[in-house]
Amino acid sequence: MTDSLLTDYDAEQARLMQEMCIIVDENDKRIGAETKKNCHLMENINRTNILHRAFSVFLFDKTGERLLLQQRAKEKITFPEYFTNTCCSHPLNIKDELKEDNQLGAKNAAIRKLEHELGIPQDQINIDDIHFLTRIHYLAPSDGIWGEHEIDYIFIIKADVELNVNPNEVMDIRYVTKDELRKMFKNQGETGVKLTPWFQLIVENFLYKWWDNIDNLDSQKDMTIHRLI
């Protein structure tokens, strides 16, 4: 497939498909780089099992009572209009995002994308306050053309932040309590709310336990790569 595949999509989202993602093996060892477009084509995932590094941020307010969710913009190429966690994207094949000690590269990417998607000033997120919890390995088709196959670094942040949402990335935001999130999941069939597959996997397998330990997140850190495929 050639870049003509992107001609009917939003121009900015098509441009971002040329960013270079980090290719890894199943043990998260870096083995190369490839465009975001080629990483997300289901044809490539099915044919070569191409796997890339990603991150998912769960940002709670300072009290730890409310979690910030976003609804992905309709311009997004994968999972448009789906609700998901605060921010989810990819470390890029650039110097500051290739650093692996203490997950520093993925944390740098998270700070970059929190600003890009939600307008959170970078000085409002201290990198030492980005708590790494674990990694998940999952595969999720979006439609007949696009999908995800990722090793996803999961981060939790507690902070009160200013938001200036980028409408090309995010169409809506909402803060939810634990009970409100449970109701959102329980009633999604009735309400028509769509939830991204990685968000569902993380919530159903891990999030509530982490939320219960929001003031002692170091006790929850787990270096396992959880295979949820």
TrEMBL record:
Sorted alphabetically, the keyword list is: Isomerase, Isoprene biosynthesis, Lipid biosynthesis, Lipid metabolism, Magnesium, Metal-binding, Steroid biosynthesis
The cofactor required is: Mg(2+)
Secretion signal: which residues? none
| The organism of origin for this protein | Piromyces finnis
Q: Which Gene3D superfamilies match?
A: Nucleoside Triphosphate Pyrophosphohydrolase (3.90.79.10)
Q: Name one GO molecular function term.
A: metal ion binding
The protein here is known as isopentenyl-diphosphate Delta-isomerase
Biological or metabolic pathway of the protein: Isoprenoid biosynthesis; dimethylallyl diphosphate biosynthesis; dimethylallyl diphosphate from isopentenyl diphosphate: step 1/1
Q: What is its EC number?
A: 5.3.3.2
Q: Which lineage is the organism of this entry classified under, starting from the top rank?
A: Eukaryota, Fungi, Fungi incertae sedis, Chytridiomycota, Chytridiomycota incertae sedis
Q: Which family is annotated?
A: Belongs to the IPP isomerase type 1 family.
Q: What Gene Ontology cellular component terms go with this record?
A: cytoplasm
